[in-house]
Amino acid sequence: MSGAEAVLARTLFRPVRDGNPFEVTVERLATAIRLGAVAERLPPERELAATLGVSRMTLRDALAALADAGFVTSRRGRGGGTFVCSHLPRDGDAHTVARSMGEALVHALDYRRIIEPGAAALAASAELSAAAHDHLRACLADVTDAPDDGLRRRADSRFHLAIASVTGNEPVITAVADVQARISGLLELIPVLRTNIAHSDTQHAGVVAAIAAGDPARAEAIMREHCDATAALLRGFLR
Q1: φ/ψ (deg, to 5) at 65
Q2: What is the C-alpha to C-alpha distance for residues 199 and 21, in angstroms, rounded to an integer?
Q3: Per-residue pLDDT tens over the stretch 172-207
Q4: How far apart are CA 48 and CA 26, in angstroms?
Q5: Domain co-membership, 127 together with 54
Q6: Which of 22, 147, 234, 236 could form an SS bridge with 27, CB 3.0 to 4.6 Å?
Q7: pLDDT digits (tens, 9 = 90+) for 130-143
Q8: Which residues have C-beta within 8 Å of that of residue 71, sequence separation ≥ 6?
Q9: In terms of domains, do 71 and 172 share one?
């Protein structure tokens, strides 16, 4: 490996530092593969996990997700390991949308990172009625209990809109609706990753709990972490 390649590898596989290790690991690996930084074979699991600063279980979950998405394949036995697929998935619609958005994709993700955590903090700061809390819990249950991925996507959008709606602040509700309109269509273009779904469910529940406890700082922090997880996957698969 040349010096330039080593620098590129260190940059793309830099340690994961935020609260979304699975999603960011998927992003790091998918981006490296798409950019051709991994020509054929990924480093051994132990080495790669240490480089990324994640557990081997997290790395294996990320590799399994990438295998399901058609990015990598595993071979056993002598000379085995994890290899980049010769033909990477290229969903024409997804990449057409991403290319057509250009910098607007980055701007949409930045916009969401500002708007939705603020909405969650505002909801936690408000004196909500029992009906409002029941509504949030019901919307949360609709997401976690959705019978299929399509219904879950829609329930997920409704949940985020519910957080805004309980604030009663029309400009905030409008802003969150705008964010969801921009993001939800993109989410339908990337693979559904089960580890991310479980992580998302935990974060959703944490936001609802923080709102119920009247803790705006925690509600904002969890929602920001949640938005960062989604952004990581969108960047990894679409950019």
Answers
A1: -65, -40
A2: 10
A3: 998 998 888 788 778 877 888 999 999 999 999 999
A4: 13
A5: no
A6: 236
A7: 999 999 999 999 99
A8: 29, 30, 33, 84, 85, 88, 89
A9: no
